[in-house]
Each structure stands twice: as structure tokens, then as C-alpha cells.
TrEMBL record:
Any single GO BP term: protein transport
Protein's cellular compartments: Cell inner membrane
Keyword line: Cell inner membrane, Cell membrane, Membrane, Protein transport, Transmembrane, Transmembrane helix, Transport
Membrane spanning residue stretches: 21-42
Protein name (database record): PDZ domain-containing protein
Residue span(s) of domain PDZ: 219-248
Amino acid sequence: MLRTVTIERLSRVGQWLPRDVYFWAKALILAAIAIQLARLAWAIATPLGPVGDWRPAQARAMAPAAQAALIAGFDPFGRGASPDDAVTSVTDLDIALFGVRENISAGTGSAIIAGPDGIQKSIGVGEEILPGVRLSAVAFDYIVIERGGRKEKLFLDQSTPAEVVVDAAAGPNAASDVPAASSGGISAAEARAGIALAPRSEGGRVTGLALSPQGDGKIFAAAGFRPGDIVTAINGRRITSPADLAALSGQIIPGARLSITVERGAETVPVALNLSGNP
């Protein structure tokens, strides 16, 4: 019924139009229908998108050099670069760091710090440690303090050797050869006698001081060193010449507090060498 009505209306319209115009109008409509049918047939035969022969992007493997650089810059313990990495000087204040609590998401944290009186306190970022000395930032194994507009680092003391567990079956005298830890540290004379230093050269220039034990090695271990350690910096100053060997020897004096950066295999370890006041 609808088709009959539509044809009748078209016939009436055709009566009002000149014969040639009506003919060409029907031709255009038929041509448009033919074009659409051809496009439909082409889409069915070759199902391509509007941009042609599109294919998904293939995964590309990184070059070995790029992979090595990426792995070298990744730290699974979250010790990434921080805004205070440019701070190279180590503080000479009579304070000691015993623990840190870093809040990476909030950019805050706190630290357990002992002052000259030896009393440990929990200090938050922004709080005052000593008069004129403020805790600026907390990192994985060190803190940044600010005094007089200058920033300095204070590392965790890792020079104390780990407690030795003695097997009960070995007898009560099994631990007799283990040196007892002293609250005052080793003396300057013991450090000179038990620790040997030698420059390490790479490419014709000095890049560190090689450490080796002397004697029975007890003093060497008590200082927090291991055979094969390389000193690369002392109190934030890098080792670059043989003169630094004499400079380090001159700093081994009673009561000295040295912050030593040690290259241990593929790691960099801070060691705090605190000498007792005894000669």
C-alpha cells in the first residue's frame, strides 16, 4: 500500500516537471544507488578501514645498550634520584644517625638522631635538631640537614660489624677470636696499624684508594671494611690524586669522625669511621 502511494506521488511530481528534468533526476538517483551498491560490494570483498591497509603496531625490542642503561638506573629499593643528590658535603657536627623513616608519597619523613649528649630523639622533616640546624630531607640511608643556608649530609653508621651468631655445638670459646665492639670505636694507632691504603689507577689517573687488612684483620673488620673495598671519597671529597692518600693518613687522628664512601663490588657503601680519643 505504501509503495503504491509513493509511486503515485512521484508520478504526480513528474507531471509537473519537464520531461527531460524528470528523466535526469531518475538517472541521478539510480546512479547514486549503483555507486552505493558498488561500495558495499567492495567493502565486503576487501574489508579494510578508512585509512587503508591498517595493521597494529608491532612490539619493538630495546637495544642491548638501552636495556643496560635502563637496568643500571633502576633501584629496587626505591633509592632513586632526589632533589638533594647535588649535596656532596658531609656534616662535621657531633651528631649521629640511627634510623630513618622515609615517606616518599608525601615527601616527608623522620629520623632518629643523637646529639652531642648521646640521647636519641625522633626528628621530623622541618624540625630543629640543634640550634640553627634543621632536618631538611630524609633518604634511604642518609639525611640532609640545613645550617646557615648550607645543606649537608649525614649517613647511617654502617661501620659496626654485624653480630656474630656462634654455634652452640662449637663450644663456649668459639667467639673468642671475634673482636668486641667498643662504644668509643678503634683508636687512631690501631687504624694505622690494621688498615693498609694504596692508590688505584685507571687510565693513568688515580680514582680511589684500595683497602687491605694488616695483621690479623680484626681492626680492619671492626672499622666496617672488607677486603677489596675501594675508597672513592672522604667527607664528600672525591679521591683524584696520590696526595689524597697523604690527606687521609693525616686525618686519622684521635677523635676523628670520617665519612668514607666505599666502592664494594657493584655497590657504593657509606662507612662512618669514628676513632676514639685514645692515641
